[in-house]
Amino acid sequence: MRRFYVTTPIYYVNDVPHLGTAYTTVVADALRRFHALDGADARMLTGTDEHGLKLERVAKERGIAPKEFVDEMSAPFREAWPKLDVAADDFIRTTESRHQTWVQDLWKKVAANGYLTLGNYEDWYCVGCESFKTEKELEPGNICPLHKKPVERVKEETFFFQLSKFQQPLLDFYASHPDFIQPEGRRNEVLSFVEAGLKDLSVSRTSFSWGIPVPGHPNHVMYVWFDALANYRSALQGADSYGDLARFWPPYAGGEPVTAGRVLHLVGKDILRFHAIFWPAFLLAAGYTTDQLPTQVFAHGFLTVDGQKMSKSLRNAVNPVRLAEKLGADAVRYQLLRAIAFGQDGDFDHGALLERYNADLGKNLGNLLNRVIGLTVKNFDGKVPARGETTPLENELSSEVSKLIEAAKAAWFAVEPHRALEHTFAIAALGNQYIDRTAPWALAKRTAPEDRARFGTVLATLFGLLETLSRLIGPAMPTKAAAMRHQLGLDAVVPTHGESQVPSGLGSIAEGTVLRPEGALFPTYDKDQIKALLDELVPPKEAPVTEEKPAPSASEATPSVAPITAAVPTLDESLPAVDYDTFAKTDLRVGLISHAEKVPRKDKLLRLEVDLGEGKPRQIVAGLALTFKPEDLVGRRVLVVANLAPRDFGKGLISHGMILASGPSEALILPTIDASVAPGSRLK
Ligand code: MSP
Fold it and tell me: Do 301 and 375 fall within a single domain?
């Protein structure tokens, strides 16, 4: 039996579930669903990372016990993922006793093998990373390059893990298991890092107590990464209805070769080193052999949202659960899986999501289903017709579909969900082309028996194609796949151990199957709806932040307003004071941008149409083009000086007002205005 075990990182509970963590979790779920569909005994694990100095400090600042804090903060993760249709088989918390006892056992094995020595340590520590830093890695002023915060000097008694002893064994392991680290570019980075030499690692702390106690040394708690990484194995204790969970860890039970199964750790690129270096080293030190190590660590890139780096406040602003409630879990999953090449950095763009939804899901797939069901209801009493004699056209379609399925399948195996979906939707496009070429609506008008038979064959072929698609989209969009099958008169696919249900070619639906039409599978959004959704969902532009900002302090851990990071200039004293009456003459209004376009040959200018509640939008020409793309502005609320004398920009281009913004031309910030403020509202 082929086994497949996929894990996500366990998430620190000082944060809320955000789009970055949702990303890995959705990819893991889709992979597990694909492998289960393919007949594998598949399992997915996620969970929360609940120890360490960072969490102890946040709890202290909140004035509550660490355990109370982590209990409260872990729940949102457990509750969030099912709302994105993620069906993890297990959710592990590092404060659970099943985990603690396993980690202590691991520690004892490493100690018994002589790889832990007691000593004194002094070095720089970044609490954000929960990691020691060498001077070389720091920016001037002892700043962590990732967190942009000063590191701390740590000096205490500690256990050292002799990581240096594993430099050569790790290099040998990487050489004999070239797929262990993916993608290739990341593998090379890790290789160079290890080749440069590994320093022994401090793996216990005495200056705080929120961690797993070191066996025999109760004044020491384990380094949080020693504890956290072990979750992938500690969760495999006990049994499910198919047997012992240890069957998911290599070497596999029953003498199956290592290749029969797969342990796949999905991680962000920032935590690859911990997984590719520390984790196998800890296991080797505990006596694991190289064929008992995980099969692969796959590092993905970082997401930006609408072109903005995901700072802490932005992470809070873009809530994946809220998005799923608004647009449906399947639409969010589709965007995450299809729009971002797994392994590379990518942008989660709300506008692109809606466009892609309309084009791929609404038009390409949804319309195909609708057209075929509609024609059948009208002409065959809503029952799947017989598939008669086929022509070279059907044979050609069938062979193209088989090739695309092969490609999609290979992509799922290679952890390339974006490609798998690209190939899957190419099948839908083939279906639409086939309709255009066979023109069934024309056949419907003819009554000769051979035309009727041909009409039936065309529809039956299309039903086969739709059946195939309903299986292939399942891993990415489980709810819509089941809904699609329901409309096609089919039951949902139930994964079965040992039996692949991934189609191998054009499928079929039995003649006479009664359809259950239910209207559009993916109702499309019109322009106004898109505008309204973007207005509601797109977070306001933030000042450009260059750093990633995990939050070690309580004030940052609770949802906060966007930090103002742009330099604040001092007030301009050369400007004269303005008396109230003069100021009161300025008519400041809230405007809603309804249209935006570039002004030809003027790099800085955009021509905007802005609704000020006057019945008809006004034209305003604004120097926003170096910061904003026109499409980013449509649907945004802005502050407008409404009674500024009209200004002529040449060639009849007249601006009737001015938009207020702050910052340099290429990094402007527009004030944030609540969506409930009506266009035309006056500021006083
Ligand atoms: N607790 C550790 C992991 C321990 S695993 C044994 C941790 N937790 S985390 O909550 O800080 O980060 C979890 C994951 O979120 C990481 O894989 C990180 O790469 C990912 N992301 C954080 N911001 C992200 C984006 N903007 N985009 C994509 N992933 C991002 O590290």
Answer: no
